[in-house]
Amino acid sequence: MIKFGAVPVGAGDAVSCLRCSAEEDVSYDPVERIVERARCIVDAWSAGPGPNLTLVGPDPLEHPEAGRLIHAVMELGVERLCVVTAGEALSRPGIASMVADEGVTHVRVTVLAGDAMTHDSLSGRPGSFERALAGMRALGEAFDALSAPHILCGRVPVCAHNLQALPGAVLALAQNGVRSIALDLSRASLGSQALPWVEAAVDTGMVSGAWVCTVGTGECAEGLYARPPVELLGAGAAR
Question: How many domains does the chain have?
């Protein structure tokens, strides 16, 4: 697997469940500070093909200077750049084409469920699910126009409130062109109760043509540390 170094762009998450906690305060760091973090990883890169970076934290595409940020990071000589996003920004004019033009290679769209009612309710953002789907379509068109290689990925943060929605989330992402999906267990303390739904989501990916993996605390969603669901959920989860 290809390694990606994580570069926080601020505090908060692209999408989070409001039923787990109150709405997170989202703040963005200045472009110069983010680029310096990226530069430190690039300068120390010794992990095989690369350097490869992932912009994480609050949605990088919602940064007040998103275009300048992505351009400056790419100017460091990054071989692969992944952006973890809620996908909504991609539906706005010019954002998808900017991402494609700047040479971003991986875009990981985050959803909490596979239908608008559940996703919008959990995220507290009415209309966000449909905007995310529209953003994925716009991104595909932008990359196709350039004949540029890219990977559209998915991310589903797992919590007690969306367990039953995991298979639907995987299906919705797969139906919109996503072929690699990470079930993010980094904030979940669910144990064996999560395993049937995680397994169902993995099975849904298999029949829908999407690779589904599980990732945990501190692990990069691009797949380097992907583990089987039983291993991440604990040995006691095995049936």
Answer: 1
